[in-house]
Amino acid sequence: MKNAAFCLPLFLFLVLVTPSVAHPLPDVPVRADFAQDGAWTLQVEVDPRCFEPDPNVALSVTNADLALFKAEQKEQLKATARDYVKRVVEIVLDPAAPVNPEFVFEFTTHDNAPLKTPEDVVVLTGTWKTKVPAGTMGYSIKALPTGELSVLYHNTALGKKLDRFQILFPGESSYVLDLKTFTPRTKAPPLITADASPMPAMDCPMCEMATGGGYTLPAIASVVVIVLLVTWLRKKRA
């Protein structure tokens, strides 16, 4: 009975805190692929949780769930994804030119991989294939202020994935990729090392945890509370 009295509160606590640590906030990856002949493929990945009032606690859609969706529901998700992308990301060319991507959305798992197992997480991957407009010198993106989630900026050029990528928060713009040299026009910020100068308050590690997916701080808090709970129960038993 004593063991049951000890395990039950701990089990209930774990059940309560699990939702807060199991579902980090989704990102919106934007991947561009530039070929030597001017071909340009743009892909954007949207997790259906982005459409929920609180994506942090919304459950992922799995391949097994998708099998139960009617055709009308699937088409509605694709239409919602198209509208969502227009609200959260803007494609910017240099010199300035209007860009209106006509994404064709398909159901995949992350990184445009095909759905295979029932447990695979479902995302909507939109693809647009076009040509870089004549005279275009640079490409970048902007995470629009109307968005609420971070946007990931990835580029591939001449068949090689560029090492440098960025995480953009609403209102931020990416570096400009030079479309002649396929290199960033600006240098990457210096790496933060142990002997570097003190960072501003907003760049503290705890701040990064708080903005790096929405689950690190709850996880730390959960561990601390569990330790305190176990200690208290042991003292009570003694």
Describe the structure.
This protein is an alpha+beta fold and 238 residues long. It is built from 5 helices and 10 strands. The chain has helices spanning 2-22, 63-66, 71-88, 205-211, 216-237, and strands at residues 28-34, 39-46, 89-94, 104-108, 123-131, 138-143, 151-157, 160-161, 166-168, 177-178. The strands form 2 sheets. Strands 1, 2, 4, 5, 7, 8 and 9 form a 7-stranded mixed β-sheet that branches. Strand 1 (28-34) and strand 2 (39-46) form a beta hairpin. Helix 1 runs antiparallel to helix 5. The model is unreliable at 4-22 and 199-216 (pLDDT under 50).
Q: Report the biggest beta sheet as strand number plus sense, adding barrel if it closes.
A: 7 strands, mixed
What is the helix fraction of residues, given as a range? 25-40%
Which class of secondary structure composition applies to the elements?
A: alpha+beta
Low-confidence stretches: 4-22, 199-216
Number of helices: 5
> What is the number of beta strands?
10
Global mean pLDDT: 84
Net shape: globular
Radius of gyration: 22 Å
Measured by DSSP, the beta-strand proportion falls in 15-25%
Listing every helix as H and every strand as E from the N terminus to the C terminus, the arrangement reads: HEEHHEEEEEEEEHH
N-to-C CA distance? 15 Å
Which properties best describe this structure?
single chain, 238 residues, 3-stranded antiparallel beta sheet, 5 helices, 10 strands, globular
